[in-house]
Design goal:
296 residues; 4 strands; mainly alpha; Mn_catalase (chains A, B, C, D, E, F); 47% helix; Ferritin; homohexamer; Manganese catalase family protein (chains A, B, C, D, E, F)
Chain lengths: 296, 296, 296, 296, 296, 296
């Protein structure tokens, strides 16, 4: 279970409130790279963890840290929406929020729906979406999902760092960027501990690989039409990364035939002309011209 | 630009149609681990690729292959919804679809909305969601996103493999599982080609790391309350994976203070009692008891 | 503005309640082909109608009728969830809802969230989505959108008709199917009144067509690779439907060149290896191998 | 900031795992009445709280408790998906998950996407949606939102209680139902502390009520057509609940006129026939018949 | 069933069209606090109402009124997008919409998708979402949901009132704010009529309260870590609001133990290393270190 | 299956990059009228096509063309985000993206999430939604859906044409507008080939029309209250468009009675007062006043 205190994990200061930056910070709260996502992702991975409990405990530990990051960013949003020190606010013209909302590039719902506070949505006001909470039950897959979340999350934080000159905001982002640095490596450390990249491939490594169609397991299928050179690289030649095969380039050609679906079921309520069409092309020699003949 | 022929990349056969399996296959079409997602993800990464064109070309190539995977799976859905050979269908009682839809665990919309064909949605009928198309502009982040997609996608395909006894479906899945094997390594090969894990950390590696708060860059913050042992592992001691620091465990304690937001703006339309509260706790010595005093 | 009475537009009777059918009916309420959608679609088209008010009035009239269709279907859902006459209910074992919910293929949220009543969602429990409310500001485009809604809506109603044996439900569907018959023609009648198909093409017909690239306005681009016959039909030869051109088939070949994006911005936080890549393929004669050479 | 230990707030036991119940429990996790929602709702209200900090602290306290409820329910889902004691599992035929997934009414994604664990979605597999996190900046509005969440949440828990015979699950639900009992009153206690219902109406009570159109502030508009009796009740006569007016019933009649929109802008790309229509009905005496005349 | 006339419930005038305000008004149409939501919410509650019909009739009555509010607001949007009187429009440069759309903070889809009219979405362009239509089957829960909708809706209207200087818009909002005043009390009046707050607690009051874990029904669990004072208030001491207990504060401590999930199923396709881990911590005395030992 | 080359179907040039236009172009990528939608819509219709294969082939052909349109538009977005020639970029102040993102009306996620590239979402940042992929299994319904997509798509392209002065962008749009011209007629040509409008009505024309309630199949129900003139037009008199009936206007009056739902189930957990209400109005003569009497 969970506990809290009333303090922030790291100081959140805003020297010059900027409602536009409050909008941008929303991406780090409710966006696909945001803190609500990583928080719930790590916690759901922990809640469903099967296997060694050390990984569950680690996920729970860091998931708990992330709740505090949501708090920091939500606080940062609220502070950026305070357009003046408290004593000035009473005196100042109350047209401020209107101007901020409409002219300043603020998310208008931070005022209209939240009364000058953070929302559980991204920088475009799109609500957080629980389908981004990845918890696959496969530890290696989840670790790569977590690396992705922290890599895109750190890219986001670096870009936000570019978009503000406020010393307080830069300081907060310095902390968050550093935490993303740690968390990327934390998840990759699990891969290493599980035996490293090679031992974990292909993911899941618990599927009996003799069951897969081995002849295409290390082929780079070149789908370019004639005259299009297939791109060469580590993936096109040499030993595969799992040490079990050799990469090669192969021109993509159909191994299958034309798909043949049955005519529409009467109860499918296609148009009569579809149903009158008779069998598929090639099957009878009449094929798809039936309709044209009778319809035109 | 793009071209097609009328054939399938690999044969799709269904010996014993199973409308329930048609529902499950939807996850591999429109689910977060599905083919619509990887197809669009690789294509959008290609369309926006900056830097060496070989990576763009590779993404475009494999993105193009994935369109054909959508086609294979949609064909498999349609074939699983054909409850009998064509000649029998006309004779058979037309109550079939009803029974299939309601009793058999089929996605009812495959009949109601699509007349016995695939939808652009997942195994629960939730529509495909473009926010899962990750294309961050950072090649390493994108490669990890792609590994994740192929790892969860292969886990999905393996699980589907368990859920069918149909030889045709098993054959198709053997092909798709093998392709996921290749694609996982293809994206990791890019990481290797870019210098390997260490050289790419932290992602993005183009941010001046002296700007981040280095003192917390390699700390595992233990958020457990007293008596909760922090989980030990590769992440808690030893050199960091980027070779620039040492992991260590640190008890999480607040570095920040209590957040202090200004009172509600008059135009924020809080309740009067909120606005009457006066300054924040500690700031005046009266703090949050003001309201209680006047309200009770 | 709007008014109501307490009666139904058409009788809704259920002789043998069927919780499974209650789930299927949800598609006709909150699905993309459902009544909430057409109701809001016609009303929003009316509310934003510019031009002759007769069309606005007609849209408002039929939009108002559709509110009553939502009511009928929601009533049908509620009645299908009443598993027994009232006097029996008190006596019967209260395990009924559980069995219905879990075993019977019912939408569990009709019980869990609504206490045995209709939801504003589709047959898979996906909530109604306002983005399906099409109101483009172009009358012809809107009329085709409305024909589509009524065509897919009538197909849905016909399929539901197959899935029930209840005389009351069949009677209600006979009414709704007939109304869809009318509404399809109602919207096509507007096209006819506006001058017919030809006069309204291309939609919008208010754009100065000399501005478009006329040389491709009537070409069927054949994207099949060599050996793939382009499909022939009314669209491949003969006068165009707007009477201004001739259809023809043309092999699709690129008119454009390879896209050339600038290297990543420093502030874009790509990986260093992407940024070091130098100019694009062809521009320097070194092309895409630069990175590999210089980075490794 | 936040902390955790590795224990559950209350024991979660499952004597007879039931994958169908695992699906239903999802509603209490990721549904609109679920724990993810209340957890985030209370935390976001706390993070953005302005005014007396005691309310912030209370929201933070209970928001923190709710994280533990997510954990309990996710654990309950995982346990319900364990179809046999551990030692039996190895021996048992591995066809179990397939049967469970397809035949048993389980959410297939609990297996396909999560490997037998909970998802961040509802009982129909619809992902949690951050737009349900209400934090309006108005304390009274938020308290009513919280009462609603706990009232619908308790109704959900009571309905789940009906749907299981498992002693462990019933025990867990007894705890959660009791907590909902407390939380409903906790939020209403804030209303009382703020002065009670009357003092807080209308919400927000900080808007200068002389600005609203007082003559309709206490009218029940009867929208029934002639012959439809307006429903009588506490709302149709007697003093208003805020003590500032008298309820009365008033027949709804339009106070406004017909809306008159300008003709389509040329750049709006309506159809020519819409734009040719000339002015609005009544404005010129020609009105909406113009088009018909020229088009037919 | 439903009826309409061609007039507005209340006049909608715009003296100085403001495309930016047209965007903000969208929140009152398709936002979570908007009129589409309350309209459908009251109607769905009416359509599924069980029990005394007077409440159904009242819900139907007010739901019908709300359709007219959508109409008023959609008209207001359209009028705010008319950048000049009709006669000037033909003469004026047609660059207006572009400027309005891009520079002016307008929702670009009001032009791009709707040709200068309202959309069924919120102020950020997020489509209306049917999951906000609450109709729980429990009258008290629904009434609190309705109070919440009208409280947040009135806060929204008051905030919009701040954001416009247009006399016509202010006049329309005066009407809508007054209606929200009425509707808040209308729903609370039902609670009063049902016996008042106490008689209705806990919601649902039809669950046999002896079944819940009474010992925690009136406890405020303090989740703060040591040193964090639990917030005191009406909720922490004194009689409970339902008159059946006494509030008290209790330090939150785990009543449950560590959750113990079974190892991954073989068919769950976890990583081999997860499956090799053996039993859970404590169960064998070896616990979670097994993997590390064997893997490193 | 599918193939590609590395060129664009048509040149994409941007002379003066405009980040604001990059945002607007998103509507043509991931919006409901956008290219991702038509691409997937035509491909899913092809993948599930039953009946004459010529239509499948045509859908596949044009669906393949549309992938190239996504590519063109994504390239256009990326080019519009390049604020200066490559050589200048290195020198220029890096504040550019910030200014662009916040001040310029750009979609901030094009920078924050994509590093200056296109997203799979619309002009408001709302992700592409697979529920807009219509493939009904009925060819006529699908053709009208496709006409709608191309009609609204062409309106969108025309409106975008108004919003740019860039010669390169105008040239690209001239091409896309012309293709929409073709595609509208292509789908209507199928209707013609299937026998024309009349032969295809009502859609589906495979439902035995004697089963529908013929007496309302050609009635325009006038829902206006007394004094509201029903709008006259092609739909109110004369032969129906399917040649099987006569249009007529009919005043809408209820054919049904008041809906009568059973009292709440005990396990539905309504409030006690709802359940105590006794039978429905009229059934006993006591009706809905029971509660009031006993509760007050």
């Amino acid at each position: 279970m969970f506990y809290h205190d009333n303090k922030l994990q790291y100081p959140v200061r805003v020297e010059t409130p900027d409602p536009r930056f409050a909008r941008l910070l929303q991406q780090a709260i409710g966006g696909v790279e945001g803190e609500v996502r990583v928080c719930l992702q790590y916690l759901f991975q922990a809640f469903g963890a099967r296997g060694p409990v050390k990984y569950r405990d680690m996920l729970m530990t860091t998931g708990t840290e992330e709740i505090g990051h949501i708090q920091m960013l939500a606080t940062a949003v609220a502070l950026n929406l305070e357009t003046a020190p408290a004593q000035e606010q009473e005196a100042a013209a109350m047209a401020n929020p209107a101007v901020a909302a409409v002219m300043g590039g603020m998310d208008p719902r931070q005022y209209l729906s939240a009364g000058m506070a953070a929302l559980c949505s991204d920088a475009n006001g799109v609500p957080f979406d629980g389908s981004h909470v990845y918890a696959s039950g496969n530890l290696a897959a989840d670790m790569y999902a977590n690396v992705t979340a922290e890599a895109t999350g750190r890219a986001l934080a670096c870009r936000l760092f570019e978009l503000t000159d406020d010393p307080g905001m830069k300081d907060m982002l310095r902390f968050l960027i550093a935490r993303d640095t740690m968390h990327q490596q934390q998840w990759l450390a699990v891969i290493e501990e599980l035996g490293g990249i090679q031992a974990n491939l292909p993911i899941p490594n618990s599927f009996d690989q003799s069951q897969e169609l081995g002849e295409v397991s290390y082929d780079f299928f070149a789908t370019g039409v004639a005259g299009t050179e297939p791109p060469q690289g580590r993936w096109s030649a040499g030993p595969s990364l799992d040490g079990r095969g050799e990469f090669r380039v192969r021109t993509a050609t159909p191994m299958g035939d034309e798909p043949r679906l049955a005519p529409p079921l009467p109860t499918g309520y296609a148009q009569l002309e579809q149903m009158a069409a008779g069998p598929l092309r090639g099957a009878t020699g009449l094929g798809d011209t039936t309709v044209v003949t009778t319809e035109q």
